[in-house]
Each structure stands twice: as structure tokens, then as C-alpha cells.
Amino acid sequence: MGRLGLKIDVDTHTGMKNGVPRLLRVLRDFSVRGTFFLSIGPDNSGRAVLQLLKNPLFLKKMLKTRAPSLYGWKTALYGTILPAPMIALSFPLLVRQILDEGHEVQFHAWDHRRWQDDLPKKSEWWIEEWFEKGVSGFEKLTGRKPTAFGAPSWLIDDRVLRIVGKYPFEYLSCTRAKAPFVHDSLRLPEIPSDLPCFEELAPQNDLAAIAVLMNDGGDHILPVHAEVEGGVFEEKFRQLLKGALTAGMEIATLDDLKNSLNTELLPRRKYQMDLLPGRHSPCAV
Ligand SMILES: [Zn+2]
Q: Is the pLDDT confidence value at 247 over 80?
């Protein structure tokens, strides 16, 4: 049987504070390890409310997925009428606990929301500063530089990859794709998320759909969100882990999966942007 990597993104202050401890408990209960991609800096989630007014598809998704009940109303106001709190930087002991419990910790974002909303409009200088702040905050929390980057909302462009090349990253997890490849401009392996997120699937068939994709004997990466699987979907996440382990899958960190790859043999590819089912904005694929 194949292996299952858990790519756990922490996007918000609430996700860090409440979702991460719940997920740590779940992983402990199953004696498995995951890879946490942390948002380090300010939580400007409230800007999503502004997005609502600008993007009808987003509004539809918010209503369909009941995002306010997933993320909480307070989160919906951070960075607007409530000040933006720091995400991982507010919880140094929790970051230490993730590491102490044997999980992999990597870099997801400085300001997740601004990247997600405004990256194409931002200057290269803004992106550079975003990485500088994020990586130095990460170092402050963990005592080392991150060795992987997973872009917020799987949103990247050529400028981002140029800047990524200045850091000692050993792999990226910035795309949604069927199998690992090498980014042609960087010679860095990409460990993509190939499975869908829980919140992208219709509620009636979510687990079954993921289980079918997962049980083909190959390696897979499940994108997990601290706010979701560490919140209203905790029970479904437990069922999924139970199913994977019962089927004989091994749960591995993304770093383990990267180390077992022969990078020389991987195809070299350039990412493309595409709108995937259940998402409101294009992802790198
Ligand atoms: Zn994210």
C-alpha cells in the first residue's frame, strides 16, 4: 500500500489557537505525524468580507460552505474593524509543542490573506519583504530556517519562484497536481497535493470520494486546514485516518516523501494556473 502525507495549513489566528491543539490530539491518538505549514504574521481574514462584496463566486462559496460557521465571525472581522493579530508568532509554545511531538513544521505565509487577495497586484519588492518577514519570524519560533514553502491558496507566479530560489528550500508544496515534479526554473522538487480538500467536496460524498482516490496503492497528499479538520470536520478527519490505516497505508511527512524521491528521475515542468472544482480562484497545477 502507498503512503499518505498530511499537508496541514494553518491560515488564521483561530486555526492556530483552536485547530492546531485539536489536530495534535487527533494525530497523537493515531500515533501518526503530519507536516504543518504555518502562517507566521498578521491575520487579515476580515478582508474576506471585503472580497465578498467584490466576487460573487466567493459569496456563493461562503454561503454554500457556511464559511462563517467554519471560521467564526471574529475571524471574519480581523484586519477590518478588529486589529489583525499575529498567527504563529502569538503562539511560540504551541509551535514548540508541534515540533516536540515529532511533526514537520514549514513555512506557509507571512500575511496569508493579502497574498491570497492581492499577489498579482503587488510589486516584487512587496513579495521579497513578505518572505523576509515570514522567514525571520519562522526562525525566531523554531531556531532554524524553513526547508519548504507551501504558497497560500496554491497561488504563485514567476516572481515568487525567483524569490523562492534565494532561500535554502529543499522542496515546495505550492501546487495541486497528480504527482511530484521538478519546477523547471528552479530545479526544486514539488510535492503537490493531489487529493481534494474536504471543503471542496459536496457534503454527502466527501469521504467516499477521497477514499476511492487514496486507495490505489500509490502515495498521496491530503491538503488539511487547521480551521476545518481541526474544527467542524474533526470527526470526518478521524474517519479518513482510520480508513487509511485500516487499508494499510502508512502516514508520512512530506519531508519523508521528498527524501524517498529520486529528483533526477522526476519530470521537469512549468506550473499553470487553473480553476479547480469547488474553488473560487485559480490554483497552480
Ligand atoms: Zn492556506
A: yes
Q: How far is the centre of ligand 1, averaged over its atoms, from the C-alpha of 130 (Å)?
A: 15
Q: Measured in angstroms, how far is the CA atom of residue 151 from the centroid of ligand 1?
A: 7
Question: Maximum CA pair distance of the chain?
Answer: 51
pLDDT tens digits along 8-31: 999 999 999 999 999 999 999 999
Q: Which residue from 235, 242, 246, 230 is spatially nearest to 24, judged by alpha carbons? A: 230
- Do residues 188 and 170 make contact, with C-beta atoms less than 8 angstroms apart? yes
pTM: 0.90
Specify the amino acid at residue 190. Answer: E
HSE at residue 165, side-chain half, CA atoms within 13 A, is 11
Q: Is residue 120 packed enough to be buried (19+ CB in 10 Å), middle (13-18) or exposed (0-12)?
A: exposed
CATH number for the segment(s) 3-284: 3.20.20.370
* Grid cell locating 15: 486555526
Cα 83 to middle of ligand 1, angstroms = 20
| C-alpha of residue 51 to centroid of ligand 1, in Å | 16
SS3 135: helix
Domain boundaries, the chain: 3-284
The three-point CA angle 272-278-280 to 5° equals 65
What angle, rounded to 10 degrees, do the helices at 206-214 and 234-246 form? 30
The 10s digit of each residue's pLDDT in 19-64 is: 999 999 999 999 999 999 999 999 998 776 666 666 667 667 666 7
